[in-house]
Structure to design on (222 residues):
């Protein structure tokens, strides 16, 4: 009897053990796990699947776009200044050509880029020629329009002197400015006093004194 009982106990344990094991491993909320849910939630994030591709190489522009635009603007100003000079609008041509010259001077071109550097230097020279030519013509008009007195001549000379900032870089333009300065040199006597004199005509009264006429009678001979 005891031998049969000893054999029956292991058999009963083996038969009922899977039932206990399935009850303990089942979740309380009876939810069924769905494969792939965690992967899908991660794929919905900001970073795309596979990660981001980032280049560590420095970006080198082929050509500086800002300088090219600046250069084209200066060329347009130079063309406009030359057109104004041809139309006889000297003051406007002087202002626009000076702006073009300043813009061209602000553009840096390395010496190793010979062709581009040579072109910009030639454009600067053209802008300087237009500026000096238009300015000298305008100053001449200014002096003549205002009477050409000592004070006006002195102001014209000062304006010519301002052209040195540009003409000093070009010998032929510098000679023109020097000649203009000599033309506007005034004498010390004229610089002392600038007065307008008026001539007053005075009439001297003419007094006519009558000459008395003396009548003499000739005696009659008897």
């Amino acid at each position: 009897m005891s031998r049969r009982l000893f054999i029956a106990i292991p058999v009963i344990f083996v038969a009922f053990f899977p039932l206990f094991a399935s009850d303990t491993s089942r979740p309380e909320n009876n939810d069924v796990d769905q494969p792939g849910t965690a992967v899908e939630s991660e794929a919905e994030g900001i970073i795309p699947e596979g990660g981001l591709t980032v280049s560590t190489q420095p970006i080198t522009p082929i050509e500086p776009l800002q300088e090219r635009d600046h250069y084209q603007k200066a060329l347009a100003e130079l063309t406009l200044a030359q057109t104004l000079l041809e139309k006889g609008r000297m003051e406007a041509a002087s202002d626009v050509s000076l702006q073009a010259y300043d813009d061209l001077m602000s553009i840096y071109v390395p010496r190793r880029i010979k062709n581009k550097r040579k072109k910009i230097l030639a454009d600067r020279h053209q802008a300087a020629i237009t500026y000096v030519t238009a300015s000298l013509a305008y100053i001449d008009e200014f002096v003549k329009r205002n009477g050409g007195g000592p004070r006006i001549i002195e102001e014209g000379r000062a304006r010519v002197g301002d052209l040195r900032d540009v003409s000093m870089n070009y010998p032929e333009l510098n000679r023109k400015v020097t000649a203009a300065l000599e033309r506007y040199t005034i004498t010390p006597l004229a610089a002392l006093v600038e007065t307008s004199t008026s001539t007053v005509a005075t009439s001297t009264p003419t007094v006519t004194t009558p000459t008395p006429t003396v009548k003499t009678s000739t005696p009659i001979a008897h």
About this structure: Residues 80 and 178 are 27 Å apart (CA to CA). DSSP finds nine helices and no strands in the chain.
